Amino acid sequence: MNFLSHYYYERDNRNCYFVLGTVLPDLLKNADKSIVLHPEKLDHPDSNISSLIAGWKKHLEVDRYFHSSEFFLEHSHALKLELAPIVEGTAVKPFFLGHIAIELILDNLLITTGEVNPDDFYDHLDSCADDTIASFLTFSGMENTDVFLRFFDMFKRDRYLHTYAETHQIAYALKRICMRVWPTPFTPAQEADIDRVLTTYRQKIINKYMTVFDTVGEGLTSGAEKLM
Questions:
Q1: Are the CB atoms for 171 and 195 separated by under 8 Å?
Q2: According to the model, what pLDDT value does residue 228 have?
Q3: CA 55 → CA 124, 162, 171, 187, distances in Å?
Q4: What number is the average pLDDT over the span 191-197?
Q5: Source organism's superkingdom (predicted)?
Q6: Of 104, 109, 133, whose CA–CA distance to 209 is shortest?
Q7: What is the overall mean pLDDT for the chain?
Q8: Which residues contact 166 (CB under 8 A, 6 or more apart)?
Q9: CA 195 to CA 179: how far, in whole Å?
Q10: Distance between CA atoms of 50 and 170, rounded to whole angstroms?
Q11: 0.90 cut: is pTM over it?
C-alpha cells in the first residue's frame, strides 16, 4: 500500500510518531533505496521511539494482508495485462507497473471520495521532531541520518500527495517511481496511453475499492485477537 492507504488505518490516531512509523519504511526507500533497516525486531524505552517502532510493525502487517488479498492479486494482474502492450520494447516490467498502479489508484480514490485528508496526514509528519527521528534511525542502525532528514523535509514541504487527487497525475507519479529503477521508463506518448488505462480502470473500481480496506482491516483485527 502507498502512503495514504497506510494512513487510512491511522486517520483517527493522535500519535504522530505512530503515524510516521506506518509510512516510514516507504519514506526511507524513497530517500535512498539502499537503506535496509529492521527496527521491528527492537525495543526502546523512549515512548516516541517505541511508537515509531510500533508504527513500523503496523506497516509490515498491513502490507502483508494487502499483498495477499484477492483484490490486490486480481487488480494488479489485470492492470499488468492492460499496461504490458504499452511498454512493450522498454525495460519496464509490466508486473511492477500493475503493482504500483493499483496502489496509486487506491490513494487517489481515498482522497477523491473523502476517506482521508492529506493535510491531516502532513500535520502528523510536521509534529514529529527531527531529533527523535534521528535517534530512531541511529538506534535502528543507520549511520548517516541526514540523508533521510533532508529528504523528509523536502517531502513535507512539497506535499506532492495532494497531486494524487488529480486522476491524470497518477500516470506521472507512476513514471516518477519507475525512474528510480529505469532512468527513462517510457515516452510522453506512452505516458498518455498509461493515463487513459488508469483513468478508465479507476472508474471501474470506484464503487468497490473499499472492500480491500475492509479485508485488510479484518485481518488486522483477527491478528490482534490471536495475540490476546
A1: yes
A2: 47
A3: 13, 23, 29, 38
A4: 95
A5: Bacteria
A6: 109
A7: 94
A8: none
A9: 17
A10: 34
A11: yes
Q: Give the tens place of pLDDT for each residue, 136-186.
A: 999 999 999 999 999 999 999 999 999 999 988 899 999 999 998 898 898
List all residues 6 or more positions away from 218 whose beta carbon is below 8 Å from its beta carbon. Answer: none
Q: How far apart (Å, rounded) are the C-alpha atoms in residues 160 and 181?
A: 20
Three-state secondary structure of 53-97: HHHHHHHHHHHHHHHCCHHHHHHHHHHHHHHCCCCCCCCCCHHHH
Tell me if 165 sits within 8 A of 108, measured CB to CB.
yes
Residue with cell 516507504: 26
Per the structure block, which three cell numbers stand in for 23? Answer: 509510512
- Cα distance between the two ends of the chain: 26
Ordered by start, the domain boundaries in the chain are 3-221
